[in-house]
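Retro notes
What went well: the complex prediction finally ran end to end.
Inputs used:
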Amino acid sequence: MIRVAVVDDHEMVRKGIISYLITEPEIEIVGEANSGNGAVSLVLEKRPEVVLMDLLMENGTGIDATKEILKEYPECKIIIITSFYDDEQVFPAIEAGAFSYILKTATAEEVVRAIQKAVAGETVIEPKVANRMMKRFRPQERKPHDELTEREMEVLMCIGEGMTNQQISEELFIGIKTVKTHVSNILSKLDVTDRTQAAVYANRNGLVQNQ
Amino acid sequence: MIRVAVVDDHEMVRKGIISYLITEPEIEIVGEANSGNGAVSLVLEKRPEVVLMDLLMENGTGIDATKEILKEYPECKIIIITSFYDDEQVFPAIEAGAFSYILKTATAEEVVRAIQKAVAGETVIEPKVANRMMKRFRPQERKPHDELTEREMEVLMCIGEGMTNQQISEELFIGIKTVKTHVSNILSKLDVTDRTQAAVYANRNGLVQNQ
DNA sequence: CGACATCTCCGCCTGTAGACGGAGATGAAA
DNA sequence: TTTCATCTCCGTCTACAGGCGGAGATGTCG
């Protein structure tokens, strides 16, 4: 008997998943949760072997819930089951300790198989997701800003906000001359000619917090 | 008897929705589709009163499917049922002729009610979605760059590319002095202090072709 | 220890940016 | 026609940007 918990903020998705599992005699649904916080208390109480977990939820993400659960209950097999579109979260999910990663496009058979394999200690990764993971381990394509030092990166982010050297010196508590030195180094490393181009670079490469 | 079709590329979501409806005696599921194209042929064949339609699908979006269906079968009540996150598509969906717009966070009761109301000719719009719609009809919030002249907009796009005044004058075949005049006017109208901030503005507001 | 990277700051110099005020040419609108 | 917006250009002036070369204070690594 495999005890399973289902976590998703959409009730209809939970019902859909459960309809997949209800026909399987060796699987027992021990509970549902509609939030990350709810998932933690549910799983720590019911101690299911497997958790099917969505990532995007309103109260506490699946990532945080996964970390919390594994801290108290490390044997738990957490299967991330999410949409294709939030692929930035694939890697954080793996780091958080997720055991498998499947998509909501999965069929009933695929979900059941993922659960059975999880109990057997086998990880299941969707091919599309696996491809994205592989890229992480392939030799990274080098971005010009990789060679910026930490301080230079801070200055670049300020430039990306449109700040002047004076404002940056006040923001970072350093002298204007120092800022100028950093800026010169940044322009050189990014292979641009002035701060405006550096600002454009920073914004296009997502180096600025504020969108 | 209300005849209903369910369209979503995720089987588990379809099963979840169907589990909501299967208990309702006056609702009959006449078919499922997992793509926009499939939805069109299904609906035109089975002629359900109501269609529950997801927007994001692999083969043909829900928007296109909605248009296609209504072209041949305009009495059909199409209820969009999608995630909260693809809100840019709310307006296109309404324009395409969708009858109601609910979210995947909806409970079984809400889905059933939306179907019943659709048959009765009443539209259901989720409050969160309705708020976004209202903004469309409220006096448009004026973006600072709306008051830029055509020429000033061209200059701003050049600034957004990181070009100097010299380069802009060559690009637009005008004198540097003219460029400076435009730049001064742009800075004033955008309420920024220098070209770097203008470049940041242009990039953040999607005024530049190249991403 | 020495080599190296990083962060900090200095002076000097040139060029660009940008503000300010003025002005002619054009075309559309009242 | 007169008015207005737009695009074009001019001169002047100040401040900031950025290059160049130098240098002291750290901390790390072999």
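What we learned: The interface with chain A takes residues 9-20, 56, 83, 85, 104-108, 111, 159-162, 164, 192-197, 199-201, 203-204, 211 of chain B (CB under 8 Å).
What to try next: split runs per interface for comparison.
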